[in-house]
């Protein structure tokens, strides 16, 4: 099956007062219709920048982009601003962590959902209102025909998140980019929103990119996983492969800092020591080497001198100099020591 979205060797570099920030530095992936790709990484790993670039929402003056982004046969990097605007909302849409930032406080929920619909379909005001009510019903807002006239501040946090999803999906986009949409919500509402997205995907066959720093969320929603570190992909594969048998030390570190669903609840979580790399002056060699618990297991100081490329190991990609046959034992010892 032809990928619906194809990203090839994407590089996104910004110029800042202090120099060039290499926010994304050679990223490749595909996404098929009806599937969910989970992109996981700490803040500053390049996951949000990747998606703003797909949507064409980056600052064109300050950004140098290389590579290829093709959505359903259309090259997005050569598309005009007008074309992108037509695609946004219609063919691709985005939901964010902060619904208040994407909803205007000055207009009713119904008006905002309806206007998005009118802009792309030329529907009448009456049709747009009906459509807004239908969408609110679909995302599980009670009494949608009444709540359609509410302002965002009259909605609870979870309801605003649903309203934002309704607005994003009002034109049946084929690609939905969800950037940490549930992070600010409590666990129950979070689970409801995830179920809602899964249902909507089933119904419409939407392709979803789900950005998160939480592997638990990935385990719940993704088909495929892409793990980013310092602007690069360090591991990618199916969710089952990556979560059951990670091949990269960074993924191993993320997993050991995640609460296990069936494990004892009182084990303290250990975040990976150190902080994400500067993308202004990234570390030499493997960008993870200053934080990696395995760098001393690789000979000749290779980790700090040579950037590992993404190689296929056990049917999926990982970028690490550790010999594949040594990984299972090393990773098991590491997990056992925590
Ligand atoms: Fe760690 Fe070296 Fe592998 Fe990088 S290449 S993840 S530093 S072992
Ligand atoms: Mg982000």
From TrEMBL:
Statement: the UniProt record of this protein carries the keyword Cell membrane: yes
Keywords: ATP-binding, Cell membrane, Membrane, Nucleotide-binding, Transport
GO molecular function per UniProt: ATP binding
Record membrane topology: Peripheral membrane protein
Cell location: Cell membrane
UniProt similarity note: Belongs to the ABC transporter superfamily.
CDD domains per UniProt: ABC_NikE_OppD_transporters (cd03257)
Name this polypeptide is given: ABC transporter ATP-binding protein
Residue ranges annotated for the ABC transporter domain, each copy included: 7-255
């Amino acid at each position: 099956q032809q990928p619906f979205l194809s990203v090839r060797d994407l590089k996104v570099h910004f110029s800042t007062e202090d120099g060039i920030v290499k926010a994304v530095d050679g990223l490749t992936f595909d996404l098929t219709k009806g599937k969910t790709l989970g992109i996981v990484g700490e803040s500053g790993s390049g996951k949000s920048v990747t998606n703003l670039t797909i949507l064409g929402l980056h600052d064109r003056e300050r950004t140098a982009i290389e590579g290829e982004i093709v959505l359903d046969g259309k090259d997005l990097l050569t598309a005009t601003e007008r074309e992108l605007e037509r695609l946004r909302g219609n063919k691709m849409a985005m939901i964010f962590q902060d619904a208040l930032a994407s909803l205007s406080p000055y207009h009713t929920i119904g008006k905002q959902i309806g206007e998005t619909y009118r802009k792309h379909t030329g529907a009448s005001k009456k049709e747009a209102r009906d459509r807004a009510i239908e969408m609110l019903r679909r995302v599980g807002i009670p009494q949608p025909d009444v709540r359609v006239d509410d302002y965002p501040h009259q909605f609870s946090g979870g309801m605003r998140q649903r309203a934002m999803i309704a607005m994003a999906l009002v034109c049946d986009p084929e690609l939905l980019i969800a950037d940490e949409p549930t992070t600010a919500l409590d666990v129950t509402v979070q689970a409801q929103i995830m179920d809602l997205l899964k249902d909507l995907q089933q119904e419409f066959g939407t392709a979803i990119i789900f950005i998160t720093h939480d592997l638990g969320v990935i385990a719940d929603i993704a088909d495929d996983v892409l793990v980013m570190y310092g602007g690069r992909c360090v591991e990618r594969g199916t969710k089952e492969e990556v979560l059951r048998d990670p091949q990269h030390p960074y993924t191993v570190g993320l997993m050991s800092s995640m609460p296990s669903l069936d494990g004892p609840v009182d084990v303290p979580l250990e975040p990976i020591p150190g902080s994400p790399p500067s993308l202004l002056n990234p570390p030499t060699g493997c960008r993870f080497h200053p934080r990696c618990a395995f760098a001393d297991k690789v000979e000749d100081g290779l980790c700090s001198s040579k950037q590992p490329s993404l190689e296929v190991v056990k049917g999926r990609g990982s970028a690490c100099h550790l010999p594949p046959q040594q990984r299972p034992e090393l990773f098991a010892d590491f997990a056992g020591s925590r």
